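Task card 7
Instruction: Convert sequence to structure tokens.
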Amino acid sequence: MTAASILKDKGGEVFTISQEASLAEAAQLLDEKRIGAVIIVGESGGPVGVFSERDLARQIARAGAEALNVRVGECMTRDVVFCGPGDSVDGMMGMMTDRRIRHLPVVENGKLIGVISIGDVVKRKIAEAEAEARAMKDYIATG
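Output:
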């Protein structure tokens, strides 16, 4: 199982927002699309950061309701960890665990082609375990 196989099933739609947008606008996008993070794009259209529900919660904890007027570019995660379409589920899980992140933008030839969440990875790991269990049961049953 790879990032490409996950994107094939879930689709490669990526929601983006400008770093000039307010946190209120980012929060509205997260709510409207029912997602946990949005990719921040620069003037060239390339990814320059990630803004997550966790980033939003931190800013509100620090500044209260006034945080909603802050620009996304001031509080987004700039040190973005990317993966490629050939990366394995185990590799992605390791990256997410090591960096304590929940979303991995998928980049191919410098182009953003999707985002994989920890939920996507866990879903695949469960499917793999179930498939292995079925195969083992079939093997035992046929002797």
